[in-house]
Design a protein that fits this description.
170 residues; alpha+beta; three-stranded mixed sheet; 2 helices; 6 strands; 50% helix; 18% strand
Length: 170
């Protein structure tokens, strides 16, 4: 019985742990955990940016709705200024209020659209009247009934306009 080889030592059995293999396994686990942590960190940063963007959009939308409710008041001032009155001081006062109110809305982001003389664009204009005429190019604005506005680059309200159309051939 002395022929047995004991040179392998006690670590050669089933319970033997190879230090190099264990090191490689732990290094792999560490790399996987670092990768998961980096992905989680990136997801968190993306989440923070998305929440901030959504917060700013909500604020902008709330501002847009507030300005939208005030635009009809601006329209009323424009109608009041078109009425002839004998009291020049009263007219000057109404014009001053209109100008101040308009400037305050512009500071909030209101942008009047200049549609006069422009070709009709159904994306931003609303044709409420069409006039057959040879005196103006086809789909040219003839008259603006109600001003159109953008709010910080977005359409707030389309302009209501009269548009020229070419007469039908007989």
């Amino acid at each position: 019985m002395e022929d047995q080889d004991h040179s392998a030592g006690p670590e050669a059995g089933h319970g033997a742990i190879d230090p190099a293999a264990e090191r490689d396994q732990l290094a792999g686990e560490k790399a996987e955990l670092q990768d998961r942590w980096l992905r989680s960190e990136a997801e968190f940063q993306n989440f923070k940016r998305r929440v901030e963007r959504e917060r700013l959009e909500r604020i902008e939308y709330a501002s847009m709705e507030a300005v939208r409710t005030l635009v009809p008041v601006l329209d009323d001032f424009e109608r009041a200024l078109r009425v002839e009155t004998g009291d020049k001081e009263y007219s000057a006062g109404v014009e001053l209020i209109y100008n101040r109110f308009g400037e305050a809305l512009k500071k909030l982001g209101l942008e009047p659209m200049d549609s006069k003389g422009q070709p009709f664009d159904p994306q931003v204009d609303h044709a409420v009247d069409m006039l057959e005429t040879d005196e103006a190019p086809d789909h040219k604005f003839l008259e603006e009934y109600q001003s159109g506005y953008n709010f910080k680059g977005r359409l707030l309200r389309p302009a209501m306009v009269k548009v020229a159309v070419q007469p039908a051939s007989k």
